Amino acid sequence: MNISPKSVRFDDDNLWVGLSDGRTIAAPLAWFPRLLEASPEQRLQFELSKSGLHWEALDEDISVEGLLVGQANITRRGVQQAA
Prior knowledge:
Distance between the termini: 32 Å
Pfam families: DUF2442 (PF10387)
InterPro entries: DUF2442
Radius of gyration: 13 Å
Protein name: DUF2442 domain-containing protein
Order of helices and strands: EEEHHEEEH
């Protein structure tokens, strides 16, 4: 995929990502529990890469591809999923 993130912002309910192709996409913070529970300051401590977004302190990674297909991250740190 040749589309990369160029900017990130938040409102009370959503993550907004500006993309290299000129689009801006939004995803509900409810899709990303670590971001939903984070402070505004923690949310702003992200890194951009060619393929997505990374929050080191929150152990959160979001890919542009996942955002474009509407893929939520429903995992929670410290919670093991049943096999």
